[in-house]
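Sample pair:
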Amino acid sequence: MEVTKLRLFFFFSFATLVPRLWANIAEFDDFWKQRADEAWKNTLAAYEPSPANVTSNLNHNVNEALVEASANKTMEFEDVSTNNTRRNLRGKHNKNTGPCMATNPIDRCWRCKKKWALNRKNLAKCALGFGHKTQGGMMGKYYLVTDNSDDNVVDPKPGTLRHAVIQKQPLWIIFAHDMNIKLSQELLVQSKKTIDGRGANVHIAYGAGITLQFVDNVIIHNIHIHHIVTSNGGLIRDSVDHCGFRTVTDGDGISVFGSTNIWLDHLSMSECQDGLIDAIQGSTAITISNCHFTHHNDVMLLGASETYSRDQFMQVTVAFNHFGTELIQRMPRCRWGFFHVVNNDYTHWKMYAIGGSMHPTIISQGNRFIAPDDPKAKEITNRNYAPESEWKKWVWRSEGDLFMNGAFFRTSGPRSHPHLNFNKLQMIKFKPATFVRRLTRFAGALDCKRGAVC
């Protein structure tokens, strides 16, 4: 009894003092120390010393997908001058009555195959960008989620999503039917997991969000995440053989903390209490693709600390996403690392689209930027966190972007890319921004039915 009282006293007193370094871990015991050490080794192993090789490979695949689609005449050529939102976050926004149109190379890898449900794990071969090595639960068994409840976070019920994600072995997690899951506490996901929502309409909403902390190889695919709120913390099971005290959460949709080889694809996200996606504390080898973001202020934070220099190893690809209605800022907001922002559709922002501090390298290629009517918000970029004498040295590039309604991108840094070793033979020219509406047409959670193309 006395031990329990002491632990509770420690938890509630420490909760107000815990440094952000350990993000919601109230008791940094041997379990978490080992996880943190392993995660840092994974970061160093996943870091790509020549990031241009990754960007070149992605550009090559974009070009190949568009050439093939054009040859098959399956792409719908639309007017690029419109600011039509054309999507409904939680509706059936991506139905198509004609032939399957896999308009970007990630989708082309799997979407137009009727037997995708019989070969779900082939999805793991489709990632591109810095997260291209992510396997998720490819080497494990399938786990069928049959129960949408989340009543017991210390001893999760078999058949629930929480019970699935705390297992140690690799798992490919799928859903038996449509589900609305209200998480009572943050969902702590173990390494080597795929959360695959295809074939069901899955919403994680009106409760806590998803946390990837000191893990590797996680895929989250084809789910809706919205109306995420803070949770109070407490004793939560984070593994089959460990429970730990957690502090109050921020209310992020997905929090990636000290994790590597992460792929977030075809997510529909909106209205979370803090950020939609945060990736911080040495996380790297991340791809965020084919997502649809709406109705939010701080959309995406990549690097959260001015002093955490390990984020210099952060490498993130943001590709084929639609940044839609009622967004304010941070699409993304970056610190320290290398960020490839390619072929995204920015149809809305109220303050700015892309921001940064602590000398991040940002390569913007083939994006469409439609500025708001507000004359004070035409600039895409924001560096208000540093004086011009400092930020003018940062490498921020815009190549092949389309600027509409007065939008402009303020570039900086030397004309050549210093220390990046770009190979002109590898740097196959990306597709220009006039193709963006087609590349992002099916962004967000898809309406997939077994036995039919998605």
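The chain has seven helices and 31 strands.
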